[in-house]
Design goal:
Elements lengths: L2 E5 L3 H12 L3 E5 L3 H10 L16 E3 L2 H5 L4 E4 L6 H8 L8 E4 L12 H8 L4 E6 L4 H5 L4 E6 L3 H11 L4 E6 L2 H23 L4 H22 L3 H4 L2 H12 L4 H10 L4 H8 L4 H15 L5 H11 L4 H9 L14
Parallel strand pairs: 1-2, 1-4, 2-3, 4-5, 5-6, 7-8
Antiparallel strand pairs: 6-7
């Protein structure tokens, strides 16, 4: 049995806390929101973000960040990506040297272009930041539906420790040393999922969604490889796997927000209606900046940014994608 704290009580943090408690670990869940902690403690259910999922009585809920961070075998950082830096900064005085922290959010900081594990290690020097990612909706994990994830860490033993902590009869966890590739796949797929949702909002169909997913994988892979990620991650669970589920499910906040944007709403209006942080909106600027930095053509990312931040109509953005210069699908293939 391990002592584990989940920092963040949103839908994903709540679902993972259930997994950990069901695996007989000693689990503490922290949130900065007092009413949220009171609800979880009294109702044993997240009534707004994960309704219908009953949580084990063994889970301890707290607003005391120091108590949540001290004397733990593993810290699970589950706050939305825009709050990773501020939360890590608040944690730093309570975290021991060499503390294993697994980040489960997906995003890239738009001003620094840092991944979330890089932010954690910058804010909490001496910590060991890892990642747990993959095609995984909290709503399905809460209902104990089959799910596969990847634990990424610089050291094999750390990835295997995380693997063993989370594995159960409905969650299979693989391991990987490619922390960067895992994080880039998880963050960038949210931008592509916005594009897929926008196409759906415009009334497009399965053909358009398949095209966006496939060309989106190409964009993610090209940028990720230029940055040092591995192709295996982009063609695996944390790349195309996560992209498929995020582009095709109404559980996906990015997909749902994209539909609303395609129907004519601003991204602010879409986020208000979804009532959750839409991480693809924040990752879009970073993705565009990274594409420019590494000189990678990412037309889908470019058009998503134009829709979100430049007032371009979704209809015109789709037209511009379709009427780009003619080219081969893969420039690496030679004619006979």
């Amino acid at each position: 049995m391990a002592k584990v704290s989940v920092i963040g009580a949103g839908s994903w943090g709540t679902a993972l806390s259930k997994v950990l408690a069901d695996n007989q670990h000693e689990v503490t869940v922290w949130s900065i929101i007092e009413d949220e902690i009171k609800m979880l403690d009294e109702k044993r259910e997240h009534e707004t973000k994960l309704p219908g999922v009953k949580l084990p009585d063994s889970i301890v809920y707290t607003t005391d960040l120091e108590a949540a961070c001290k004397d733990k075998d593993l810290l699970v950082l589950a706050v939305p990506s825009p709050f990773t830096r501020s939360t890590a900064h608040s944690m730093k005085d309570y975290v021991k040297e060499g503390q294993l922290i697994v980040n489960v959010a997906k995003g890239i900081e738009d001003k620094t272009f840092l991944t979330l594990t890089e932010i954690i290690e910058e804010e909490i020097p001496g910590s060991v930041a890892c990642v747990l990612s993959g095609p995984s909706h909290a709503e399905e994990v809460g209902r104990e539906l089959t799910t596969t994830l990847v634990a990424g860490a610089a050291k094999k033993e750390d990835a295997e420790f995380i693997q063993n902590i989370f594995m159960c009869d409905y969650i299979r966890v693989y391991t990987s040393p490619d922390v960067l590739g895992i994080e880039l796949g998880g963050a960038l797929k949210n931008v592509i999922a916005l594009a897929a949702g926008i196409a759906d909002g415009l009334g497009q169909g399965d053909n358009a969604r398949a095209a966006i997913i496939t060309r989106g994988v190409s964009e993610i892979s090209k940028l990720g490889l230029a940055m040092g990620g591995k192709q295996e991650s982009f063609s695996g669970l944390t790349g195309i796997g996560d992209l498929i589920v995020t582009c095709s499910s109404m559980h996906s906040r990015n997909h749902r927000a994209g539909i609303l944007i395609g129907q004519g709403k601003s991204y602010e209006e879409a986020m208000d209606e979804v009532k959750m942080v839409v991480e693809g909106v924040y990752a879009a600027k970073a993705a565009k900046g990274l594409a420019e930095k590494y000189h990678i053509a990412m037309p889908i990312v470019t058009e998503v940014n134009a829709i979100l931040f430049e007032g371009k109509s979704a209809k015109l953005a789709l037209q511009d994608l379709m009427f780009r210069d003619k080219k081969p699908e893969d420039t690496g293939l030679a004619w006979g």
